[in-house]
Amino acid sequence: MREALAKDPEGTVRAVAQMGYQAVEFYAPYFEWTDVQAKQMRKLMDDLGIRCYSTHNDEDYFSAPKIERARDLNLILGTKYMVQAWSDPKTKLDDYKALAGNLNAVAEKLAPAGLKVGYHNHDAEWKQVEGQRPMDVIAKNTKPTVMLQLDVGTCLEAGADPVEWIRANPGRIRSIHLKDWSPDPNVGYKTLFGEGKADWKGIFQAAESVGGVEFYLIEQEGSRYSELETAKRCLEGYRKTHG
Cα(160)–Cα(153) distance, rounded to whole angstroms? Predict the structure, then answer.
């Protein structure tokens, strides 16, 4: 919903709430909102009965010059988690350990405000570096309070098993991006929820019995439909699969 959100943030949130979505996740441009804009969005969400449990943040939002501003906006929006959305792929495990160390430090800084930290994977974190998968290194070197937000589609594309990962990290997969993936190079991430390779029933079972999942987020990187129609169809697919 990136294009729609950029053009009309409040109208977009109202539209997905009317479809039946119960939560949204604002990505990096939310950082440019004024306090007034953030408060208006919070009021709209409260009026609609929809929540923003987490935001997606650029890596530098966790830096000293920006962390307090990001914290304050998240408190206005009523979020629980500030998720680092991306870190550039690295060639040394020590660099991933440093990333984990920074996530721990940010978690300590945000804890007094009642906010928690998360990390969102892409495909690079599943590809071995110096004989280990970076995601394993990140998980091992972060505190249990740091959420490991699973992006299913990139996990599948890299050849990893989402169910195995969830079961290997009990209680830490507290939110999941429900992004499907097709091995057809002409489709890839543009496949709609439920039409790709993901074993959604297995993923849901593992997430809810072991992973500690608190909320799901449908992510879609384009499709053959408009953004709003795509969101509608993906929600329908989710309801048919999950119930």
Answer: 10
What pLDDT is stored for residue 6 in this prediction?
84
Q: Pinpoint the alpha helices (H) of 24-161.
A: 35-48, 67-77, 93-110, 134-141, 152-157
Rounded to two decimals, the pTM is 0.97
| Pairing state between β 116-120 and 23-26 | unpaired
Alpha-carbon span 150 to 28, nearest angstrom: 18
Over its C-alpha atoms, the chain yields an Rg (Å, rounded) of 17
Residue 194 CA to residue 159 CA, distance in Å, equals 18
User: Is residue 45 within 8 Å of 13, Cβ to Cβ?
Assistant: yes
Per-residue pLDDT tens for 106-160? 999 999 999 999 999 999 999 999 999 999 999 999 999 999 999 999 999 999 9
pLDDT above 90 (res 196): yes
Q: What is the pLDDT of residue 213?
A: 98
pLDDT at 78 over 90: yes
For 33, the 3-state DSSP assignment is: coil
* The token pair that represents 216 in the structure block: 């799901």
Could you tell me the strand order of the sheet in which 51-57 lies?
23-26, 51-57, 81-84, 116-120, 147-151, 175-177, 215-217
One-letter identity of residue 65: P
Domains and CATH numbers, the chain: 2-242 (3.20.20.150)
Q: What dihedral angle (degrees, nearest 10) is formed by the CA atoms of 22, 25, 29, 33?
A: 50
d(CA 74, CA 41) in angstroms, rounded, equals 11
